[in-house]
Design a protein that fits this description.
Low-confidence stretches: 1-22
Mean pLDDT: 83
Number of helices: 3
Shape: elongated
Distance between the termini: 74 Å
Number of strands: 15
Strand order of the largest sheet: 4-3-2-1-5-6-7-8
Order of helices and strands: HHEEEEHEEEEEEEEEEE
Strand content: 35-45%
Structural class: alpha+beta
């Protein structure tokens, strides 16, 4: 009897310990910014959102810790201008510190694409290949608006590896690649892949990314919902690597379309929606 009681008590103790522990809550950039805006409305309603970053973002654009920046500009007394540094961690927001305005960092205004969308783009541009070939790599993300020409919002995604850092810069409004220090063909894909297009739905253009593991003839064809060929985007020999193709549907009507990649024996089809 004593032994049975001991077993029951031990079991209950283990259950209690298990319930206390919980995984870190991961959030997208816009989810975190919503919390940051709420806090700033009580602290400094005139402060404007100036950017954010995270040190470890996953493939779906979420991170357990975001750092946000808000700036207040006092035109009457410039020395009173200040920057608020916030932490968005595990679904909660808090003030980290207050300092002088950040030189060169301007105001981030809507619209801008969320981190979940930008990570799909970065992964399609070569980030997925980096992760697959170098499992120890991790990704950082920054959202910035620069006050110097050219004036634009950008996402900067860095894949940090033991031997190097590979960076993508993506326009935070259009989703187009600005510049990259990654020579994508240095990373030879292990298999052919057709990535989801972005944006989707789209109007009037969208970007399609694909990769091939060896040199061969590659075809990329768009079909309508009835299976009729609409346009051949690509039909040529390609070396092993990752590529980007832009599809413009300026003369097409709204509806569902399909795009198909053919590379040797590989055939894959995905759906996209033109919404006017």
């Amino acid at each position: 009897m004593k032994q049975s009681v001991f077993i029951v008590i031990t079991f209950l103790f283990v259950i209690t310990i298990t319930d206390v522990s919980s995984p870190q809550e991961r959030m997208s950039a816009k989810q975190t910014k919503t919390l940051g805006d709420s806090l700033m409305s009580t602290m400094s309603p005139s402060a404007l959102f100036s950017g954010m970053k995270c040190s470890n973002i996953d493939t779906v654009g979420k991170s357990p810790l975001w750092n946000l920046y808000y700036q207040f500009f006092d035109l009457v007394t410039p020395r009173n201008s200040k920057t608020y540094y916030l932490n968005g961690e595990n679904g909660k927001i808090s003030l980290d510190s207050i300092g002088p305005p950040i030189v060169g960092l301007w105001i981030v205004r809507e619209p801008w694409i969320d981190s979940d969308s930008v990570m799909k783009i970065a992964e399609g541009l070569g980030g997925a290949l980096i992760r697959n070939q170098y499992p120890s790599c991790y990704a950082k993300a920054w959202l910035n608006a620069w006050g110097y020409p050219p004036f634009y919002l950008e996402w900067k995604i860095e894949y940090v590896c033991p031997d190097s850092v590979r960076m993508f810069r993506i326009n935070a409004v259009t989703g187009n690649s600005i510049i990259t220090d990654v020579e994508l063909n240095e990373f030879v894909p292990q298999e052919a892949t057709l990535f989801p297009n972005y944006p989707n739905p789209f109007n009037p253009s969208t970007v399609i990314n694909y990769s091939v593991p060896k040199q061969e003839n590659v075809m990329l064809i768009v079909y309508d919902a009835l299976g009729r060929e609409v346009r051949t985007l690509l039909n040529e020999e390609k070396a092993a690597g990752s590529y980007t193709v832009e599809f413009s549907a300026a003369n097409l009507s709204s509806g569902i379309y399909f795009y198909q990649l053919r590379a040797g024996e590989f055939i894959q089809t995905k759906k996209m929606v033109l919404l006017r």
